[in-house]
Amino acid sequence: MRISTTMQYTNSLSYIKNSNSKVDEQATRYNSGLKFQSAGEDPSGMASKVKYEGAIAAYKQYIEAGGIANNSLSEEETALSSMWDTLSSVHTRLQQCVNGSNDESSLKALSAEIAQLRDHLFDLMNTQNTEGEYIFSGANSSVATYTLTSEGHYKCQADGSSRGVVVAPSVNVQVSDSGLDIFENCKTAYTINATGTNLERAEVKTYGTFNELFETYYKPAGSVAENTLTINLDGNGKFTLLDPNGNTIDSGEVDTSTSINKITVKGMEFTISNPNSNESISIQLEKPTTKNMLNILTEIASVINDESVSNVDKIAAITKCQVDVEIALSHYDSYRGQIGARQNAITNVLNANESLSAIKVESKANVSEVDAFDAASELIRAQNQLTVSRQIYSMLNKQSLFDFI
């Protein structure tokens, strides 16, 4: 094998070039923190990196969606909480209205206050979010949930739909409730329709007791006859309450202690003209109805303010309205509970998402990122190798094969 001076120079320069390339490669890894820059350097590693980046981006989107969902639910919960407080104030005013010491001036003041509370409730039902959307209007969020017609009637414009947000690969959380379900489909107090030749007046006095009777005997799919109770008078001042099949529910005597003859049974009170007749009173259990509180409060404010309405009729209307308000309070509160449950679910999912995202980030780092200490060590080793190469080249540069001849 022939060795020439030129060959020595060529080999030394090649060694320096390779050492310099290694320094550049290690410097790039150290500065970027990545094991590779292209798929050609590590095909399987790049494939894994792309997969993890997709998963990380998806979890980031889920976390952002969860934050939006939490904000939407918080707005709804706040509005419903304010409505609950407003209705509680209405209930208090209704209790004040049945105070026997109220004169017409006091009743008018209470009526005006109830109307103001109704207006506040109207504003809350039309709550808008930061984007100007009506949060209780369902999919029709650009239209106010309630509008006041020229006849003074409050009309619901919400549809029955709701919106959801995906906060995890298989978790879709409802973030809105339609006012049609919350406000319009809210039940009202049970009622009766009594008839009889001896009957002067019929009303529900104690709703707790009457509700038990109603829920026991009312048949949603039944006929009028199947939902009709009967009071039979025996002609001696005694009565018997019968179910639709003629079975005895309760019995007693007509109260004749005052100038008004009364039958009080199962939360109901009937005023009759003749306690010693042997006639019957038919009591039809009316089909339960739904009605929004805005119209209910408008009507009761009008009744309280109307001097032509007797005190007895006012008290009866106020008592029923109190029950309507209590039902609405319970109904609104149930939705607040649902919202709280959804918020808890979102919180749990978001915590899981953050943990899973952190795992994906760590897995991606293991595949594509270098250890800073190792990268620094490799860079120093490559720099030392380059330095040695240059030193060797410098030494060879001073020699020649003629020195050995």
UniProtKB/TrEMBL annotation:
<feature type="domain" description="Flagellin N-terminal">
    <location>
        <begin position="3"/>
        <end position="140"/>
    </location>
</feature>
<dbReference type="InterPro" id="IPR001029">
    <property type="entry name" value="Flagellin_N"/>
</dbReference>
<dbReference type="GO" id="GO:0005576">
    <property type="term" value="C:extracellular region"/>
</dbReference>
<protein>
    <submittedName>
        <fullName>Flagellar hook-associated protein 3 FlgL</fullName>
    </submittedName>
</protein>
<dbReference type="GO" id="GO:0071973">
    <property type="term" value="P:bacterial-type flagellum-dependent cell motility"/>
</dbReference>
<keyword id="KW-0966">Cell projection</keyword>
<dbReference type="GO" id="GO:0009424">
    <property type="term" value="C:bacterial-type flagellum hook"/>
</dbReference>
<keyword id="KW-0969">Cilium</keyword>
<keyword id="KW-0282">Flagellum</keyword>
<dbReference type="GO" id="GO:0005198">
    <property type="term" value="F:structural molecule activity"/>
</dbReference>
<keyword id="KW-0964">Secreted</keyword>
<keyword id="KW-0975">Bacterial flagellum</keyword>
<comment type="similarity">
    <text>Belongs to the bacterial flagellin family.</text>
</comment>
<dbReference type="InterPro" id="IPR013384">
    <property type="entry name" value="Flagell_FlgL"/>
</dbReference>
<dbReference type="Pfam" id="PF00669">
    <property type="entry name" value="Flagellin_N"/>
</dbReference>
<dbReference type="InterPro" id="IPR001492">
    <property type="entry name" value="Flagellin"/>
</dbReference>
